[in-house]
Write a structure and sequence with these properties.
By secondary structure, the chain is mainly α. The chain folds into two domains: 81 residues, no CATH class; 138 residues, Orthogonal Bundle (Lysozyme), CATH 1.10.530.10. Helices cover 56% and strands 0% of the residues. It is built from 13 helices and no strands. Helix 1 runs antiparallel to helix 2, helix 7 packs across helix 13 and helix 10 crosses helix 13. 31% of the residues are buried. About 28% of the residues have low confidence. It comes from Paenibacillus glycinis.
Length: 233
Amino acid sequence: MSIDPRIMKSLLQLQFLPSLDLNGNDNVLSAASGTDGSSMFDSLLQQYMAGGSGNDPALDDPAAYSGLLSLGGMNALAPMLGQMEAQPADIAGSGSADYDALIQQAAAKYGIDPTLIKAVIHTESSYNPSAESSAGAKGLMQLMDGTARSLGVTDSFDPQQNIEGGTKFLAYLLDKYGGNEQAALAAYNAGPGRVDRAGIQTNDDFQALMDRLPEETRQYVSKVLNAQTGFLA
């Protein structure tokens, strides 16, 4: 059965609602419960699995029940739901297939696990070859102009050049940090100079000294490794 991700996300959100009210108190939301005591989640799930009753607009139009999801507790659940959307199971279905040949070619040339390249691209640009950050990083692997020039990249928006250059840079960092992926990824994000000044050379160093790096870099390393797990699945 083909599952509409909007409906399934909303069903999962509803599943969390019963234990929260508008004040964060621990009781059941009347708007999310049926008259017989069954939860709206159970009702919607049963009808959806049956193909929809045709009488409940919540199943025919996901927007019709979106108002329910704004009820108490959703602000507190937002970080959890954001993480749910980025789970590894969803990552492997991203745009990586469009660039598989280029990724495999670069991975073989520089001796890097292709899933790591895919994870970096996923985290850096979500596979958008036209991506450009406010700092000026460009393309799939978000190369700064100076870095791109040093890598022989003349057009960072060209997928072939960007993947080639980004993988070359990643290979250099993995070699510099003795194959320690966490240290190399931190340097990819924050720059090797900053990582060196923090005293980080290995994964153990990263774990012990990560507070010397920006929060963005710490999160970046975690996101890439999580994404790689998805591509390995």
